[in-house]
Amino acid sequence: MGTLGAFLIAVGAISAIAAILAAALMIADATIGDYGEVKLSINGGERELAARGGQSLLSTLKEEGIFIPSACGGRGSCGLCKLKIESGAGEISPTESPWLDEAERAAGIRLSCQVKVKRDMVLRIPQELFSIRQYETRVLSIRDLTYDIKEVTLGLVDPPEMDIVAGKFVQFVAPAYGNSPDPVYRAYSIASSPSRKSEIQLEIRLVPEGICTTYVFTRLKAGDKVTINGPYGDFYLRDGERDIVFIAGGSGMAPIRSMLLDMAEKGIDRKATYFFGARAMRDLFLVDEMRELERRLPNFRFVPALSSPAPEDDWKGEKGIVTEVLDRHFDSLAGHEAYLCGSPGMIDASIKTLKGKGMPEDRIFYDKFA
Amino acid sequence: MTEFNAIGPLAVLFGAVFTNNILLTNYLGMCSFLSVSREVDSAAGLGAAVVFVMALANALNWPIHYYVLVPLGLEYLGFIVYIIVIAGTVQLVEMVVERVSERLYNALGIFLPLITVNCAVFGAVLFMFIRKYDFAASLAYGFGGGLGWALAILAMAGIRQKIAKAPLPKGLEGPGITLIAAGIMALAFMGFSGMIRSS
């Protein structure tokens, strides 16, 4: 038997085995995987949808133009996409149960990304979510803020304007590319002022191996089309007169910057201190803009803190991790309120410090990266 | 034709559960063992899924190896073929389970995608060929290997539920203490190996 024969047998055998399995899966997908057309009745019959069953409720609703907030994009790791499902959801699955407490279970609250649409459903969707829309945008510019954070400015095309409250986030759709066969959705806070309705800025930090951030860092360029949806979130500046503590790290700068720009434009001159944690000088950004904001808001102070400044940084500012600096700055925070944005580790540590200084938990607002 | 090992299926089954536990003697299937052993309930679900998938993987790959790959002289393609077969069938089974019973799906089916490419499942397939088991022994090995893995993760989940309430040194929390407990468990399982002449 020649080499060619051996080669053909090898290729043929592997292909045959793979083809048999693929055929079996396709047949299964078309028969047992097909749940037919199902009806979704939303808010007591206000809206009726007919959709194909078989997908998660989150993506089924997305296809129908209803966007439920989700920071993790449907992986069941952020717990944001909760909805009240009155019937048709089936039993609570083990992937949902860590996110639901007793009261929520009793009320029929479910994680919509983990509920598969298999039969007719009756559900409730908060009215304000209907204002969340999909926007076609175009990249106006991309700017390096640090070696691993980029500022992406998107011009809204269709619809041409977005009503924003400072602190909200949008989902950025990275299309299928390279080794990523499906589009992925990732959440980024809006960093620009709410008064700029026709363009928004995002601060995107490179996550090693991250599908969306790698796309932004290696492929995205000015002029590209980008699809986003939003705005989402309940992280916004509460009305009142209390002194404010802002705490952020890395791209957690984004929503805080938006809040500060909003305060400056509206002339809200509450006493506010902004602690920004970074490792070294090369992780600091927008310092000039923060100093400018200090001039526009006489009661605002920007306090960058470096945990391990490089010798060449010649750093004269605050040293240590952000919670230590916070600890040194205040004796009591009983009368303050706090807004935090950053990694889960930083947020959890900050909450501990804030509570230790007497701040009640219901005055601590945060946006945790999922 | 291959000379099969003369060892009987019952001895293989016992060996796979206790003396040659694939998790505790070969340290295969560690990642899911560490990540899903926090609660007894989910550990039981994952354990049942492993029993099922291992038995199925061995039952399917044995005839494919001896009736397709060996006659064609394609043993060197084994790794690719076994993995394709495991992944394809498990996905099929998952779809069937989801359709047939929601309860079964929530208890077991949801773990199936987690273990399709688990090294313990693949390891069991490779061991049955290396050790030259006949079909009955291979089935027993797959089933027993799964049972052994399930036994180990159940025991670990029980231990971890107790550890969760114990005061631990900070540096040992999480994976650290779990690995130490797994090591002690492996030592305990070594005690079984005196009960049967080695296979």
Protein architecture, described:
The complex is a heterodimer of chains A (370) and B (199). Chain A is of the alpha/beta class and 370 residues long. Chain A has three domains: 37-129, Roll (Ubiquitin-like (UB roll)); 133-232, Translation factors (Elongation Factor Tu (Ef-tu), domain 3), CATH 2.40.30.10; 243-368, Rossmann fold (3-Layer(aba) Sandwich), CATH 3.40.50.80. Chain A contains eight helices and 17 strands. Chain A has helices spanning 3-30, 57-63, 102-107, 211-218, 253-266, 287-296, 322-329, 344-356; strands spanning 37-42, 47-52, 82-87, 109-111, 121-124, 133-144, 149-158, 169-174, 184-189, 199-205, 225-232, 243-249, 272-278, 300-306, 318-319, 336-342, 364-368. In chain A, strands 9-8-11-6-7-10 form a six-stranded antiparallel sheet. In chain A, a hairpin with a 4-residue loop joins β6 (133-144) and β7 (149-158). Chain B has 199 residues and is mainly alpha-helical. Chain B has one domain (9-195). Chain B is 70% helix and 0% strand. Chain B contains nine helices and no strands. Chain B is globular. Chain B starts with 8 loop residues before the first helix and ends in a 9-residue tail after the last helix. The A-B interface holds A 6, 9-10, 13-14, 17-18, 21-22, 24-25, 28-29, 32-33, 90-95, 116 and B 41-42, 45, 64, 68-69, 72-74, 77, 80-81, 84-85, 88-89, 91-92, 95-96, 98-99, 102-103, 106, 110.
Number of strands of chain B: 0
Tally of structural domains of chain A: 3
CATH class of the largest domain in chain A equals Alpha Beta
Strand content of chain B: under 5%
Quote the distance from N terminus to C terminus of chain B: 22 Å
Name the biggest interface: A-B, 22 and 26 residues
Order of helices and strands of chain B: HHHHHHHHH
Shape of chain A: globular
For the largest beta sheet of chain A, what order do the strands appear in spatially? 9-8-11-6-7-10
Pick out the low-confidence regions of chain A: none
Radius of gyration of chain B: 18 Å
Enumerate how many helices of chain B there are, as a single number: 9
Silhouette of chain B: globular
Secondary-structure element order of chain A, as H and E? HEEHEHEEEEEEEHEEHEHEEHEHE
The CATH architecture of the largest domain in chain A is 3-Layer(aba) Sandwich
Q: How many H/I helices of chain A? A: 8
